[in-house]
Amino acid sequence: MAGRTALVIAHRLSTVERVDHIMVLEDGRILEYNTRAALACDPTSHYNQLLKTMNPEEMLT
Question: Model pTM?
Fold first, then answer.
C-alpha cells in the first residue's frame, strides 16, 4: 500500500508489524502515537509492554 494512507484497527500485533506509525487507544482516548520503532524502544510505552507479552516466535522483525 505504498503511497497510500490506511487506518488499520488491530488486536494482533503481527497485523501492525509493517505500519509506519502506531496509535494506541484506550477507552476512546489516544494513549500514544509514534513510529513503531520509537514505541518499541520506549520502555514506558504501552506498545512496548504488549510486545513483551508475545511469544518469541511471534516477535516482530
Answer: 0.74
User: Does 3 reside within a domain?
Assistant: no
The Cβ of residue 22 has, within 10 Å, a number of other Cβ atoms equal to 21
Between the two ends of the chain, the Cα-to-Cα distance in Å is: 19
Q: 8 is written with which cell numbers?
A: 488499520
> Residue-wise pLDDT tens for the chain (61 aa)?
678 888 888 888 888 888 999 999 999 999 999 999 999 999 999 999 988 988 666 554 4
Instruction: Give every CB contact of residue 15 below 8 A, 6+ residues apart in sequence.
Output: 8
Give the residue carrying C-alpha cell 494513549: 31
d(CA 40, CA 28): 22
In a domain, 6, yes or no: no
